[in-house]
Amino acid sequence: MKKSRYVLPLVLTLAIAGCSEQSNSQGGGTAAGEQAGAQQRPPAKVSVITMKQAEQPVTRVLPGRAVAYQKAEIRPRVNGLIEQITFKEGSEVKVGDLLYKIGDDTYNAALAEAKAALAKAEASVPSAQANFDRYQRLVNSGATQIEYENARVTLLQAQADVAQAKAALQSAEINLGYTEIRAPFDGITSISNVSIGNIVTANQTTALTTLRKIDPIYVDLTDSSANLLELRSAIAAGRLKGNPTQADIRLTLEDGMKYNKTGKLDMAEMAVSETTGTYQIRAVFDNPENIILPGTYLRATVTVGYENGFLIPQRAATRNANGTLTAKFVGAENKVQSRTFEHTQLSGNSWLVTENIKDGDKLIVDGFQWIADGAPVAPVDATLDENGFVVETPAAAPQETPAAKP
């Protein structure tokens, strides 16, 4: 009876072991089948473009802000009461157009008073002149030298009074003219800060309105001093062709649209900011439709020169942990290989490279994210748009349908 207690567990253990061996045998067969199926899968199709060396533009993308071509804060130059506001706020005005009219009653009275003072001063000159002429004739025949000198001083004083009165008259005329505030140049007005009936004072702190000329318009760009040094080194080495001072500049608006006018470099600041390590570049653009407004944030693409090399679309490349540009190519036996590029230049929506690449190389531009190095692929020639997207891939030949087995 004691032996029977150990027989049943022994039988169960042997049975479980047999089932486990059978299961492992079946699992191994399944894995082997999957491996065989994987080996029979066709290579993945990838879109490729053929590399060709050519002279390509070297560009910089810089942030910037639009600035009015001309700007003036309009202030009064005399005291008085605003009687007229002759412009529509936010409208275009021409040089010399009347903007504000200040009450001129007191200035007309001052002008009349200045005219009267001039007339009085001029009336005293003839008698003083005649008296001087008489004493000049008599100075050696009865008239004393003192009388002659007094006559001469009286004449000079009368002439000085006339000059003073003329200056006062001119000042009165100028002040009267200042009661009409006119546009100093063609531009667009802002909101008026005063209304009819307000009292204004000469050269007050608050501007009456602001006038801006925005056609053409300036765009102030910011670039790093490191880029400036790199650009100068490339020019000195002869790698970069063209004159950066005559560079074409194109704008991208805040909504991502391309501005249809090309700008030119106007000036570059000959100093680097001590806090940011950047320097300022000013470009000028035609703005006939007033699309660009002062203060607008913009991105500018500046063509600084041309260099021979190969273009790798930005969407077909990545950066490794060290920040080095990497891209995948179709190598020997149609297997994937990665390449790195230490020195790169920006060229529009692509990277311009000059090393570790040659004519005829096949760059993978689509599907490279999921393919490891050494994997076999089936390259298919593709066409890219200006943004680096695949827009056309020739259709692959249709596969033949296997004949049905009898």
TrEMBL record:
Q: Which residues form the Multidrug resistance protein MdtA-like beta-barrel domain?
A: 216-305
Start and end residues of each stretch annotated as Disordered: 23-45
User: Mainly localized where?
Assistant: other
Query: What span is annotated as the signal peptide, if there is one?
Result: none
Entries under InterPro entries matching the protein: MdtA-like_b-barrel, MdtA-like_BSH, MdtA-like_C, MdtA-like_HH, RND_pump_MFP
Q: Which UniProt keywords apply?
A: Coiled coil
Domain Multidrug resistance protein MdtA-like C-terminal permuted SH3: where? 310-369
Q: Spell out the protein name for this chain.
A: Efflux RND transporter periplasmic adaptor subunit
| Originating organism | Rhizobium helianthi
